[in-house]
């Protein structure tokens, strides 16, 4: 023992390195063991759903998974296959996986949607937007009024695999363990609880509309946030560095525009889930014939009330237009989106400090900002305006746009505990 201690003392650098390596390795192995236990427990819970008896005449529920393999720096596919796929298969679902980078998929999307009972989006914020966009471009269009009755009622599951997963804050409890977060989200899909989420339709003058479930940002905080990754070598100081160097530009940084908007709209009552039974064929034929032979009804002229638009000119350091999905209230009586116009009089120090807050919660509205509740707005930019919008953390060229709220347009699966918290908070 004395010889061993003497050797360790004489080679203290190697000893220190070995102890650190063994500690790190032991901690890594323990973490892997805990992750395996979480996966096993989740699979056992999913197996209970798969063991449920169903009538032989009832087909298996079909789930279409849209997986973005590029999410989480290319790790999304492995994360999905290790943590989510076993749970979905054990639950008895008939699962079809579609990669979002698959070319020519638009042609097959309609066929897939006609034969699916639920949609699962596996990725980050960009994946959610990409899937909604591709469905729209393929004329499946979950958001189109003509097929809204069919497709907007298909429930959507979200498995957070991306770098930014804003929706997961609304749908699932917070978790620092990635494996637990993914398995909780997948199990929530099996449990079947859903919440309605608002969608923003953002349309330029000539572009196809873009759909967002979080919101639109335009301004200096967004521009600085995009450059944070460039300062990776500064470690925890990279966020402050990106905002600090951003202040070297012309200061104060002002974004000028004009805004027209309409106020909140009254929320209609929920439609009953059960529809009345369809009348027999002979009754439907009789009604059609009677309608055909009857004289056309006289049209009663309706008084068209002009929409009450408000208009203002603004100068701001940042403008954001966001849904209420982050502060979901299932009992509110009005539908609206939040428009936040931040003052352009902030100091450089305030800008750097607020920039760190904005990275954590991009749509936070600081004190001194002008907050507007609107159901629809038109943003006009001065000619020659440069820069970019951030729409659900995806970059788009800044241009004049019309933003329209589509209230409660999509239903997303959520953890039953989160739904209970929302209802409890509403009662209080």
UniProtKB/TrEMBL annotation:
GO terms for cellular component: mitochondrial inner membrane; mitochondrial intermembrane space. Its EC number is 2.7.1.107, 2.7.1.138, 2.7.1.94. InterPro entries: AGK_C, ATP-NAD_kinase_N, Diacylglycerol_kinase_cat_dom, Lipid_Phosphate_FormReg, NAD/diacylglycerol_kinase_sf. Its cofactor is Mg(2+). The keyword GTP-binding does not apply. One of its GO terms (molecular function) is acylglycerol kinase activity. Pathway: Lipid metabolism; glycerolipid metabolism. It comes from the Eukaryota. Signal peptide: none annotated. Residues 58-206 form the DAGKc domain. SUPFAM superfamilies: NAD kinase/diacylglycerol kinase-like. It catalyses: 1,2-di-(9Z-octadecenoyl)-sn-glycerol + ATP = 1,2-di-(9Z-octadecenoyl)-sn-glycero-3-phosphate + ADP + H(+); a 1-acyl-sn-glycerol + ATP = a 1-acyl-sn-glycero-3-phosphate + ADP + H(+); a 1,2-diacyl-sn-glycerol + ATP = a 1,2-diacyl-sn-glycero-3-phosphate + ADP + H(+); a monoacylglycerol + ATP = a monoacyl-sn-glycero-3-phosphate + ADP + H(+). It is found in: Mitochondrion inner membrane; Mitochondrion intermembrane space. GO terms for biological process: ceramide biosynthetic process; glycerolipid metabolic process; sphingosine biosynthetic process. It is a peripheral membrane protein. Keywords: ATP-binding, Kinase, Lipid metabolism, Membrane, Mitochondrion, Mitochondrion inner membrane, Nucleotide-binding, Transferase. Belongs to the AGK family. This is Acylglycerol kinase, mitochondrial. It comes from Mesembrinibis cayennensis. The lineage of its organism: Eukaryota, Metazoa, Chordata, Craniata, Vertebrata.
